[in-house]
Amino acid sequence: MTVNTRPKAGSIPSVEEYKAAGVAFAREIADLGPRVQAMFDSLHVGDLGEFHSALQAQIDNPAFDAAFEVACASNQHLADVAIREALRGAGVSSARGSSRGAERISDVFVLPVTGPVDDINRLVSDASSMAALERSFRDAGLVAPGGRVALADVSLGPDIVVHATPGTLRDVHRAFEEFIASPGTAADRSALEGEVEDFEAFCVPEGQVSEAKGIATMLLAGFYTREYAVMTQFDLDPLTVQISSADGGADHAASLAAFAELARDVTGLDVALPHWLGRGCAAAAVEAALTMMEAEAECYGKDISVTGLDGVALAQRGDVTLVEGEIDGHILGPFAFATNLIGYAPEWAGERFEAMARAVIPAGRLEHSRSTRLN
């Protein structure tokens, strides 16, 4: 985890100024420590509501990531769930709405897009196509009345942004808020893209530089803002349900299917459903594996999007997870992806893979499987 502070353009500070800034920042971290520890205490007793309430009160502090990292090291038994919940909360905010008794809620989400990398890069470089993709959310009936969706014209590597910290994700949220409030000029959009690109750069693990090639699944960063009348009963709109909890289910199936079709028509690529960041990284792993599986099935004259699979198997091998399928006696895979991609939503990812097949086969037990030697 890294601290969510950024060097700003301007005169170069002296050594003394650097030292003074370092001492001041260390003091801010120490001062914030007890409040962040209280968040972990809330998790310890199972009070997620208090955790998220405290998170919203502290997340905008520039020292938050550093204090949070210290707390994770001191509470290692809670660190995994704390990071997951902090990332969920960092992408969401609520504020007073534009009228009395209204609340404005906004979310950062990611949209998995699969296809040739060159085609994905062309998509994000084409303002008209990106605008049409934004409209697809409303045209499909996903958006609440008066709600707005914005997408950044940048594609992100899921293997990179899976390393996001709460503070850096909050920076993205803030950048989108500023863009939504702006006139939306070319300069405004350029500023948004710069912030999203900075976000990805801050997520790169030390010594790791990765560049997607060939066919890949990338993530587009998006923002959804809408208002609700607080004192009235209201039904959550499809996009809110989709981002925050799970795939929309039967209540919103038609709208979600319509979005997938519209997005495919607009982009010429496979566009999955939007998710909060952690589940979006898991979705990217699932989509990438599915794309490879579908391509291999075609070699046998099979279309698994129509027929499904007879069986599917998952196995974790260190930092890598393997998935393979079986259809009419043909083994597909194994296909590998980094396990940390599904770390924030392992059960969801497992359910997605299991839903592709009529049977879940014990890892490596597929007869004549090419992955048996790995077990």
Indicate the topology.
Blueprint lengths: L14 H30 L3 H11 L5 H11 L1 H15 L1 E5 L5 E15 H9 L1 H13 L8 E9 L1 H4 L4 H16 L4 H18 L11 E15 L8 H7 L8 H15 L2 E2 L5 H23 L4 H4 L3 E7 L2 E8 L2 E9 L7 H9 L21
Antiparallel strand pairs: 1-2, 2-4, 2-5, 3-4, 6-7, 7-8
Helix pairs in contact: 1-2, 1-3, 2-4, 3-4, 4-8, 6-11, 8-9, 12-14
Number of strands: 8
In angstroms, what is the radius of gyration?
A: 22 Å
pLDDT < 50 stretches:
1-10
Number of helices: 14
Mean pLDDT: 89
Distance between the termini: 33 Å
Q: Report the order of strands and helices.
A: HHHHEEHHEHHHEHHEHHEEEH
Biggest sheet features: 5 strands, antiparallel
Q: Report the principal-axis shape.
A: globular
Structural class: alpha+beta
Helix fraction, binned, reads 40-55%
Percent of residues in beta strands?
15-25%
Textual characterization of the structure:
Helix content is 49%, strand content 19%. It has helices at 15-44, 48-58, 64-74, 76-90, 117-125, 127-139, 158-161, 166-181, 186-203, 238-244, 253-267, 277-299, 304-307, 346-354; strands at residues 92-96, 102-116, 148-156, 215-229, 270-271, 311-317, 320-327, 330-338. α12 (277-299) runs parallel beside α14 (346-354). The two termini are 33 Å apart.
